[in-house]
Design a protein that fits this description.
The complex is a heterodimer of chains A (110) and B (125). Chain A has no helices and ten strands. Chain A is mainly β. Helices cover 0% and strands 49% of the residues of chain B. The termini of chain B are far apart. The interface between A and B is medium-sized, with 32 and 24 residues.
Chain lengths: 110, 125
């Protein structure tokens, strides 16, 4: 199956900008979606498609993509943004299009 | 409001079976594909299976293919995951999630727009 690789952990000062990356061959062909997960809670969708935010997600979250890398940017990080973040995309390696999650990035807000 | 409520988790011995359920409400269940996603303790998310809005198409992760079966009953607004030949490595919280694209098959992107709170499955002797 395809793999999506993320940095295990990043930190950001309160109010600063942090970019979380997701690398994988499938991202050359398919958009990523991004999910935020806080301890003991279910994941929450934050970005999908080219750069779409569901209702209720602050506009400090944005997405982009180039080549085999998708990125989630938090501009002006807040304390409540401290969480694990996972990318997701289609898995193009098999004989059907499944789905694959990234390895996850733990974001710490200092 | 959209609600997804999983049930059926518990402790089961290796090699045995378990069936999970996901009760949906607050939306037209029969108009959306649905997924199961799992998360082993302290680990990341792993996609498990997807079923189309009408149940006609089902796809599985290689790790569960041939052992797990996804199904749905649109008259009961319920999604199921039948898990057979369970292994220790199947121990995880199992989430159901809605595919936000509805009945439209979107190949170029993914969208898990609503998630349940999960049910814990522990496979242990």
């Amino acid at each position: 199956s395809s793999e999506l690789t993320q940095d295990p952990a990043v930190s950001v000062a309160l109010g600063q900008t942090v970019r979380i990356t997701c690398q994988g061959d499938s991202l050359r062909s398919y958009y990523a979606s991004w999910y935020q997960q806080k301890p003991g809670q279910a994941p929450v969708l934050v970005i999908y498609g080219k750069n779409n935010r569901p209702s209720g997600i602050p506009d400090r979250f944005s997405g982009s993509s180039s080549g085999n890398t998708a990125s989630l940017t938090i501009t002006g990080a807040q304390a409540e943004d401290e969480a694990d973040y996972y990318c997701n995309s289609r898995d193009s390696s098999g004989n059907h299009l499944g789905y694959v999650f990234g390895t996850g990035t733990k974001v710490t807000v200092l | 409001q959209v609600q997804l409520v999983e049930s059926g988790g518990g402790v089961v011995q290796p090699g045995r079976s378990l069936r999970l359920s996901c009760a949906a409400s607050g939306f037209t269940f029969s108009s959306y594909a649905m997924h199961w996603v799992r998360q082993a303790p302290g680990k990341g998310l792993e996609w498990v299976a997807v079923i189309s809005y009408d149940g006609s198409n089902k796809y599985y992760a290689d790790s569960v293919k041939g052992r797990f079966t996804i199904s749905r009953d649109n008259s009961k607004n319920t999604l199921y995951l039948q898990m057979n030949s369970l292994r220790a490595e199947d121990t995880a919280v199992y989430y159901c999630a809605r595919d936000g694209f509805g009945i439209v098959v979107v190949v170029a992107a993914t969208l898990f727009d609503y998630w349940g709170q999960g049910t814990l499955v522990t496979v242990s002797s």
